[in-house]
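User: What would this chain look like folded?
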Amino acid sequence: MRSRIAGVGGTLVFAWAMVALSADIPDNADSKSIDESIAGYSQAYNDANIDALGTFWAEDCDFVDHRGRRYSGRDEIKALFRRALVEGPGYQLKLNVTARRFLRDDLAIDDGSLELTEPSGEVETGRYVTVWAKVEGKWVIQNARDMPSDPDSKTAGQNPLNNLQFLVGNWTLAGAEGAPPVTVACDWQAGGKFLVQEFSTAAAEGSEPFTVTVWIGYDPIAGHLRSWYFDSSGGFGSADWLEREDGWSAATSGVLPDGRTTTSDFHWGQGDDGAIVMTLMNAEVAGEVLADSEVRYVRQQ
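Assistant: Here's the prediction, encoded as structure tokens.
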């Protein structure tokens, strides 16, 4: 999943630094030391060695993933790695520096691309920018940010939402005998520029049903699909969507009516019988981890 790339040492984008980036990589002792840190970082990631990974981040480091989620401090970033690499070794990370500029003798910025191979053989790619700081003689990551990959030129001009056509229709949650029925209606809106999902759960007699409305559209700046949701209790949030070989992943963050924050990863796929399979992973409410789950929606007859 994309959240695994979030821990690879991506990048914080400083406009002033990006403008100044050189297309060349300096050939000096400090530059070679940074390359050694990159090699050590990649090895630690591939070995799922969390403690070793932590040594390549500054104590007061800052990381923003491709979904806009911010992680501050070495301990918080190590916690992110523990969740991303919970299955242990098996992921292979490759980082390729395309440009480097020294801003001071103890500060440098890299622009690069990454490739992450999962145990299944599936490969994910992305771009990153990293700010390196020299601390007590060692180059460590001070700030970092992951960025989305460039849009596929082969699909330029096409509506990316077309690949979510399988969501369109009226659906009912399967296998929920004895529980209030849950339905989903999905259709095109605004001249086909958006998909709108309407989730509804039957309520007790005399009360209103609980509903969640989701608008899905293409974000040309981010280069991928995004969604925005609003529920009938006052909660709201957004998600970044990425297409995978087996469906779509949606990294979601939101706010509950009482002010608690939520994060989760959804996976949307289609079963062999035409049903929609929705998997919830990495869900947290105010820092409390929730169990993963999977549900199926069948088309209404």
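The longest strand covers residues 92-104. If you want, I can go into more detail on any region.
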